[in-house]
């Protein structure tokens, strides 16, 4: 009887978390298949790509979870980061060609990426204060649809504005750090990829610490769980929402700056990253920040598997199919939505 009673709770837990169990098994199978077919190199590339998708998706999930904004201009934040990094790093690179300095060569890319993050944070404050704050004060009716339309409009304005001011030209770099590739487990990885992954993990870790261990971070989590209750205990909603939007925009800009060697800066460069970020967020669960981190690596696995076993041209197809199947089985996503009151807004 004891064995049967212990087996029932286990089976009940598996049933309650069936989407997580199924996706975990599926991901493990893909991981093994990718390792067998592509070796360590493909595994490392998948992990690095997953880290960057996670960084981009976390910002998207944060905005949706706290502000109930389906942010379709998030890709343009990626674009802004790429442009800022390019125009910051290129003059430094030209200076270092004529005035070699190992220390400056090492920190110049980090300075460009940090500048892009600051520019993204400022852009987030401006957008939130000029567009979403007035909308909040005017009405909460049909908030989700109005916010969606506004972000689509912001996307058009930013991408077309970049095209008007800077032109359709592609601006990029071959690499940030002019050093040899690093050998890891028999696979050679570029330093740019490794540092981009490190930046994404440090940024996500810093966000996690901020949300969990600081008073303001806990206030952000409180607003995401119950906006009315948070307001009743004295939390300044305007400050929290502006800060949230600023943080999300900064993370997207850091992502665009870190990947400048892969995604050249041009007006519509944010399209593909935006699609993958939404794949992650919808599959993991709207507003679920932790789920978005894990989802980033799952989508990267799907991308790599498609490239290895199907065709490169189908890279966006398999993640889309899996996302549709997941939503049919679990409409709230693999890890469940953390957005409160969406249906009432």
Structure description:
The chain has 345 residues and is mainly alpha-helical. It has a single domain, classed as ABC transporter involved in vitamin B12 uptake, BtuC. It contains 12 helices and 2 strands; from the N terminus they run αααααββααααααα. Strand 1 (182-184) and strand 2 form a beta hairpin. The chain is globular. The termini are far apart. Mean pLDDT is 86; it is low at 341-345.
Question: How confident overall, as mean pLDDT?
Answer: 86
How many separate domains?
A: 1
CATH topology: ABC transporter involved in vitamin B12 uptake, BtuC
Structural class: mainly alpha
Outline, from the CA principal axes? globular
Supply the number of helical segments. Answer: 12
Distance between the termini: 49 Å
Oligomer: single chain
* Proportion in β-strands: under 5%
Taken in chain order, the helices and strands follow as HHHHHEEHHHHHHH
Residues in helix, % = over 70%
Query: Which CATH architecture?
Result: Orthogonal Bundle
| CATH C-level name | Mainly Alpha
The main pleated sheet reads as:
2 strands, antiparallel
Strand order of the largest sheet: 1-2
Radius of gyration: 21 Å
How many E strands?
2
- Low-confidence parts, pLDDT < 50 over ≥5 residues? 341-345
Q: Could you name the key traits of this structure?
A:
2% strand; two-stranded antiparallel ribbon; 2 strands; 345 residues; disordered C terminus; mainly alpha; globular; ABC transporter involved in vitamin B12 uptake, BtuC
